[in-house]
Each structure stands twice: as structure tokens, then as C-alpha cells.
């Protein structure tokens, strides 16, 4: 009997981790520290919420179907902003608005792959990418990273065959937080271009990049849209997670195929969310800069407190975006350590095993900390609790 598509992949990891909380009571003086999910927990800026309310009350069109590829004004604004950030050329006809960045990835894969095709994905990977590839009948080819957690384009070249359709990069990376340097991204782009496959670059956490330099130079290429498929999310920048607004930037020819996919899944992106994203880009640059500064402050706090853990055998493998990626010193697998930490120290985080195929053991020594919802004091408390873990060492 052939399995249905959903049965070919694993349960959603964040939902699985939340079940570890069932039946656990946390003392008043040691409340739960939840660093399992990389999403803002605060609502959007008050002025944005007012703009959303005004749109709901005054603009009848927000309650109706809109264009499948998104509001023309939002597509135009994002094209201009992308061109400005990267110093390249992007026009509205190359932009599609999607119901979140996950849908942008799903749409990209739908335009690229047939049954049995392959996509190369560095590991540790973003698990929702792997889940969608499974459900699409596409083979995920893992590209193991070295101890520096950076993928090797020459290693990727060895894995390309006649069924390969794309390579996927996430930068700043989920789960490691690492920001891939321009020369590395360019090397992957040149590889994909030379082999006639797509390079999908997911930059969900771009707005929290630690450098003020351009994240990469791909948009400066005159023919970038023949190879590059760029993914973006408004959710993290503007706290719009519940409104599901993402984007896919690619060639107009590819967007004609994307439109088929989007029209049969959600018909159009969330209208209120699109108005919010547009208003945010037009009005909240200074506020967003402050949000970035706060994330960088919290990132610095991780670095400040890390020596205490290093003295106990921990290692910081990656730091950036919303994430700190740690190697733990204990004999047990992170798959067992993570649920134990809920009970022992009141910390909910994700084990590295959730970001690897089951036949690779590297994830058993790794943990992902999503720190964006902890201030500096919360990070200090997090590290203080981690230092109290007293378990057999590897």
C-alpha cells in the first residue's frame, strides 16, 4: 500500500517539543524559559496595528480576494527595497507575495521538481524544508557541513546528477545562526548556474544581519533571475507571524508557474497582512533598526556568557539571526537531553537531531537556542541554568 504524502515525513518538531511540557509544573521562582521557536511573541508596532484596523474598517477590498501574486503596491515596494539593499536591479514583475515564507519555499519546489527529483540541502537543515520535500516526493540530498557549520560548494558539486533541480541555502542560517559570506554564496550561485539548476536562498532573518554591508552580491548579476530564487519573510521584521506574509523573488516566467501553485492553495495572500507589510516598509525603518540593535545586543549577551559554559565543555558552533547553536558535553543524545532539560532546569529548546537525517549522528551532540524573545537578563538566567546541568560526560 502506498503511503499518503503526509505519512512520508516526521511530525512538526516544534509541536512535538511542546508536548514535553505536558504534566510539568514549573516553580514560581523558576518559570519556563522557552527558546524552542524562532518567532516574535510580541504584537506588531501600535501604529501598524492602527493602520491594519483602519484598513479593515475603511477599505472594503481587504475582505475580498486579491491578486494571486500579491498587492501590486507591495510587490513594487519590496522590489525597490530589495534592489536598494543589495545594490542590484529588481522589478515588481519578479516579486510574488506568499502566505508566509514556508509557502514561498513550497511554491518554488513546485515549479522546479517532479516525482523523484532531488534537492541538495546543507545539514543541519531547516526541518520544514525537509518536510515539504518529503511530501512533494522529492529526495533531499544532505550536504554535511564541517565543524565550522559552513557548506562546501565543491562537496555539493559531487552530489549533483541528472535529477538534481536545486541547492537550498538559508542565511542567516536556521538552525545555526551563521551568516554565509558573499564569496561562499557566490560560489554556490556559480556552481548552480554552470550546472543549469536553481539556487534557492532563504533570507528570512536578513533584517537582523550583524553587518551593514550587503548580504550578498547576487542581485548585481544581470541575469540573476535565471538561477536565483530568493525567499523573504515579513514575519520576523514586523512581528506579523500570525498574518502569514512572505515573498518569492524570481524570473517572471517562474512566477507564472508560481501563480498556478498559489491559486490552488490559498488563492491570494492575507490582505490585512499585506497592507501591514506595505505600511511597515514605508513607515517603520527607524523602529526596525532598533529591533535589529536589540537582537544584536542579545547576541552579544550570548557571547558574554558563553565562557562559563565553555569551561564545562560546551562549544558555540554558530551565532546569529535568532539563534545560538551549541554543542553539549554530555554522554546522552540531545534527543534525550532536550526533554530532560524541561524537567531539570526549566528550559525548552530543540535538539540537534531534529535538524539532521536519522543516519547522521552529529545532531546528537547539538542544541538550538532561539534567543530572540529573551532580553539580556533572560539570557543570563538561561546560561546560569545551563551551567547547573550535572550529567555524565561524553
List its salient traits.
Aspartate Aminotransferase, domain 1, alpha/beta, 394 residues, Aspartate Aminotransferase, domain 2, 2 domains, 15% strand, globular
Percent helix: 25-40%
- Oligomeric organization of the protein chains: single chain
Strand order of the largest sheet: 2-8-7-6-5-3-4
Tally of DSSP β-strands: 13
At the fourth CATH level, what is the homologous superfamily of the largest domain? Type I PLP-dependent aspartate aminotransferase-like (Major domain)
Helix and strand element order: HEHHEHEHEHEHEEHEHHHEEHEEEH
Q: What would you call the structural class?
A: alpha/beta
CATH class call of the largest domain: Alpha Beta
Radius of gyration over all CA atoms, rounded: 21 Å
Q: How would you state the average pLDDT, rounded?
A: 96
Low-pLDDT residue spans: none
CATH topology of the largest domain: Aspartate Aminotransferase, domain 2
- CATH architecture annotation of the largest domain: 3-Layer(aba) Sandwich
> End-to-end span in angstroms?
43 Å
Largest sheet: 7 strands, mixed
How would you characterize the overall build of this protein?
The chain is α/β, with parallel strands linked by helices and about 400 residues long. The protein is about 40% helix and about 15% strand. The radius of gyration is 21 Å and the shape is globular. The model has no long low-confidence stretch (mean pLDDT about 95).
List the helices and strands and how they pair.
Elements: H1 13-18, E1 33-34, H2 46-58, H3 72-86, E2 95-98, H4 101-112, E3 118-123, H5 127-135, E4 139-144, H6 153-159, E5 164-170, H7 182-195, E6 198-202, E7 228-233, H8 235-238, E8 246-249, H9 252-265, H10 271-283, H11 285-310, E9 315-320, E10 323-327, H12 334-345, E11 347-348, E12 350-351, E13 366-370, H13 376-386
Parallel strand pairs: 1-11, 3-4, 3-5, 5-6, 6-7
Antiparallel strand pairs: 2-8, 7-8, 9-10, 10-13, 12-13
Helix pairs in contact: 2-10, 3-10, 4-5, 4-9, 6-7, 11-13
